[in-house]
Amino acid sequence: MARSGLGIGVRELAEAAGVSTNTITRLEKGEPLKARTIEAIQSALEAAGVEFIPENGEGAGVRLKKNSNE
């Protein structure tokens, strides 16, 4: 959802996170990844403007950060 919300492709996210496109595909399929790989992908998404929302009784989620110019 985060990648789609940003409008970026698998290749762009993989490059930003320093991982392979196959790794992004595996993540999106729900396959297990090493913690440091997940952290790298999360950091890349956060740098691009994604905010991760913790579990609040209805499940964890993501949203795009508000533009500071608004």
H and E order: HHHHEE
Report Rg: 12 Å
- What fraction of the residues are assigned to beta strands by DSSP? 5-15%
Number of beta strands: 2
Strand order of the largest sheet: 1-2
Query: Helix tally?
Result: 4
Give the name of the CATH architecture.
Orthogonal Bundle
State the name of the first-level CATH class: Mainly Alpha
The major sheet is characterized as: 2 strands, antiparallel
Strand pairing plus helix content: what structural class? mainly alpha
Give me the CATH fold name: 434 Repressor (Amino-terminal Domain)
CATH homologous superfamily heading? lambda repressor-like DNA-binding domains
Counting structural domains, the number is 1
Global mean pLDDT: 88
Distance between the termini: 23 Å
Organism: Rhodobacter maris
Domain HTH cro/C1-type: 11-52
GO molecular function, one term: DNA binding
Protein name: Helix-turn-helix protein
Question: Would you kindly provide a brief summary of this structure?
Answer:
Helix content is 49%, strand content 11%. The chain is mostly helical and 70 residues long.
Spell out the blueprint of helices and strands.
Elements: H1 2-6, H2 10-17, H3 21-28, H4 35-47, E1 50-53, E2 61-64
Antiparallel strand pairs: 1-2
Helix pairs in contact: 2-3, 2-4
